[in-house]
Write a structure and sequence with these properties.
Shape: extended
Distance between the termini: 40 Å
Radius of gyration: 17 Å
Number of strands: 5
Order of helices and strands: EEEEE
Strand order of the largest sheet: 4-3-2-1-5
Helix content: under 10%
CATH topology: SH3 type barrels
Length: about 90
């Protein structure tokens, strides 16, 4: 099921702040996927446990989301060794 969020929802992601505009629910066995527009128009998909939704600052608590989203370290790189292996190497 795909749900269009109208109005959109401001969220914090591992890649920075964004604006969620779709939710995709694949069923009971898979996390809900949020489709988020990041700065510069980049669109990414995030599982529900990778994002935080900002609260309403008008309720007296201000912006209640801190830096609790886990971000990869700045020096982190993906392991791309599998691209260099040929069929003969295992």
């Amino acid at each position: 099921m795909i749900i269009q969020l109208s109005p959109t929802i401001e969220v914090k992601t591992p890649l920075g702040d964004g604006e969620a505009f779709f939710m995709i629910d694949y069923g009971l066995n898979i996390n809900t996927v949020w489709v988020v527009r990041l700065e510069g128009g980049v669109v990414k998909h995030f599982y529900s446990d990778d994002i935080l939704i900002y609260g309403n600052p008008m309720n007296g608590k201000g912006w209640d989301v801190g830096e609790s989203v886990k971000r990869p370290p700045a020096h982190a790189r993906r392991n791309m060794d599998f691209l260099n292996k040929t069929n003969n190497q295992k």
